[in-house]
Design brief:
The protein has 329 residues and is mostly helical. The protein has helices at residues 9-37, 40-61, 63-77, 89-129, 141-158, 170-202, 205-230, 246-287, 297-314, 317-325. Helix 4 (89-129) packs across helix 6.
């Protein structure tokens, strides 16, 4: 078994941004599917299932996929990594739950800020603890400033949507619904670290992505079964093919995330995906706007500031420059 090679930051960061571009497209497709079915959990289960089918085909057709498939059970049995990493895909299911149950209360803007805040803070923590395959990364002042600027920039970019989101129950009424997307975002960094570590032992992100979809499907179909008994069946599945593209897009950003955390670390991988998410949302709003879409100057400027904050958090040169200046004195 050969471990995936490390990528230089100049190559890895654009890939992380590219992976993030798929997130808003997936959200738009899954949202439309949920509206068509009249059931957000059913839409999530269908999305995960199509992603699982894609990963099964890839795992069986590609030689690297077959090698990774053969490495899963030996790695789990030998405890090459903590066995709880196998259920990392359940975190993705939690994210979908948070999306289904709180976007209608908070609005897209508050939901986005809540998840980005949780993911950015946990990215620092996971890198500091060395949970991911990149090992420990110091919590420098530059990285902290970059994280704070990222959260502020995302809040600025989505601020034009605040007037259209939420149920208007007041700050106290929004506090409890806010905790779920913050928790989901916080756990996403752990999911990336777990997937990255598993990828090292499987030899390919294909196997890690497959295991993620198996775990996510198990959780979502169990939840759907409960809802089916309590509420009843959803609307019939639509015939249009594009409703089923959400799962394959999930394969892209889960697989790339598992590959990139070894090279970039959890924080920078997450920040790159956040930048891609904002760029993808902006492009969608410009090219395929939905009713009530707002593309204000704050949206564009906030997105650009996010990119600058991510570059600031990624580059280590300020700290090294200070070290080199000391002997001169």
């Amino acid at each position: 078994m050969t471990s995936p090679s490390r990528l230089p930051a100049l190559a890895g960061l654009p890939l992380a941004v590219g992976a993030g571009l798929a997130i808003p497209v997936q959200g738009r497709i899954n949202g439309a599917l949920g509206a068509r079915l009249g059931d957000g959990i059913a839409a999530a289960a269908v999305s995960f299932s199509t992603g699982l089918m894609v990963m099964i085909v890839i795992s069986l057709v590609l030689p690297r996929g077959r090698a990774g498939l053969a490495a899963i059970l030996p790695a789990v049995r030998s405890r090459a990594f903590p066995r709880i990493y196998v259920v990392a895909g359940a975190i993705g299911a939690l994210f979908v739950f948070a999306q289904s149950f709180t976007v209608g209360i908070l609005g897209v803007a508050l939901f986005t800020v809540a998840t980005v805040t949780g993911q950015t803070v946990s990215g620092l923590l996971v890198d500091r603890l060395g949970i991911g395959p990149a090992g420990k990364k110091s919590v420098t002042g530059i990285r902290i400033i970059g994280c704070i600027l990222t959260i502020a920039a995302v809040a600025w970019a989505v601020s034009p949507r605040f007037s259209g989101g939420g149920a208007g129950d007041g700050a106290a009424g929004l506090l409890v619904p806010l905790l779920l997307p913050v928790a989901a975002g916080f756990l996403m960094s752990f999911q990336q670290a777990m997937n990255g570590t598993a990828t090292l032992h499987y030899g390919t992100p294909i196997a890690a992505t497959l295991v993620n979809f198996v775990a996510g499907c198990t959780v979502l179909w169990a939840a759907f079964a409960v809802k089916l008994v309590v509420v009843g069946p959803p609307n019939p599945l639509p015939g249009e093919w594009w409703y089923y593209l959400g799962g394959p897009m999930g394969c892209v950003f889960i697989g790339l995330g598992a590959l990139l955390v070894r090279s970039l670390g959890v924080l920078v991988t997450g920040l790159g995906m956040i930048a891609g998410q904002l760029l993808g949302s902006l492009a969608l709003d410009l090219a395929l706007p939905t009713p009530g879409t707002v593309v204000a100057p704050a949206t564009v400027l906030g997105t650009l500031l996010t990119l600058g904050a991510i570059v600031l958090a990624t580059l280590p040169w300020p700290r090294g420059a200070l070290r080199r200046q000391r002997p001169v004195r």
